[in-house]
Amino acid sequence: MRWRIGSAMTGAAICATAFALLWPHAKDAGAVLMVQDDPARLSDLQLDSILRNDPALVEQNIKAALAAQDTNLANSFVDLAAARGIPIPGELSQRVAEAVREENSTGHMAGRFLAGLVTGNADDGASLSGTVAGDLCVFGDVRDIMREGKHLAMGEDTDRLLLGLAATGLVVTAATFVSVGGAAPARAGLTLVKDARKVGRLGEGLSRWAGRSAREMVDTRKLQDAVATAALARPRQTAGAIKAAIRAEKAGGLVRLAKDVGRIGEKAGTRGALDTLRIAQGPKDVARAARLAGAKGGQTRAIIKILGRGALLLTTGAFNLAMWVLSAVFALFGFLSSIKATTERLTLSWLQRSKARRLRRQSAVPS
């Protein structure tokens, strides 16, 4: 009986120790599993853990961003520090403020707008405005369609994704004018997706999805005929032939993607949207990033810089997190079972001793 009581107490001690060791991990894992569908809360929990272990991380990233002349990213980390109550040295905050003032100066903004208008590439708000202005004139989209359509007609390598994005651009541009600017966020978002594709900053998974969607949009035979008969002297007929080759009803997926990218750009800035397109593996990632940007605004770039795709969804794996929780539950169950067994065996031992004493007293009484 003593051995049985001792083994039960030993089991209780082992399970209690295991539970104490597992509980912090299980608590964090459970919290993450509870908010896995909320990117803002998910990123908050992960940042709590990372910044608790490395409180100097924000300051280091601000200095690195300034050294790389990425003022927008540096300012995003300043916003993150302010939101989380992390102190930043006054001298460093002043350097960021001065860089932001310089970037927002009239001369700088005008130069970036012109660069975006001429080159069609956007990497900040000003250059995006210039690029969108060019796209609203449909020149950029028609140019891309003509170029890729010619490659297609001649049997050369064709960027079908860029072709589909340009075709979607014509659809969105028309909607922008009809709605008097109501579709402007989608137009800006689509421009960013095109730019990300051109400079190789579109995630591989997102590229594959967008490529499949783009192929469904374009009637290859009609586009080849339009390119073959295109003439600068007949711009109206050429534009009409190109539009006839576009299946506007198939543009829904790309338009939704463009709207989400446009919302990210509005809340987190152009570079925030480009960072998202680089890590996104599909439209669901972009939709999650739009929710994150809506909640965190200017902090979004800093959060994505630290967490990467983990800012948008679980990357550890729900199974691994669930195992921490289940392990803690089993340890707790083992502890309670051991306590129950110990109590039962102690009670049984006490009853047996009581019975033995009673029998001894009875046997000691003379008959």
UniProtKB/TrEMBL annotation:
Highest taxon above the source species: Bacteria
Segments passing through the bilayer: 311-336
Keyword annotations: Membrane, Signal, Transmembrane, Transmembrane helix
Entry keyword annotation includes Membrane: yes
Stretch forming the signal peptide: 1-20
Keyword Signal: yes
Record protein name field: Uncharacterized protein
Species this protein is from: Nitrobacter hamburgensis (strain DSM 10229 / NCIMB 13809 / X14)
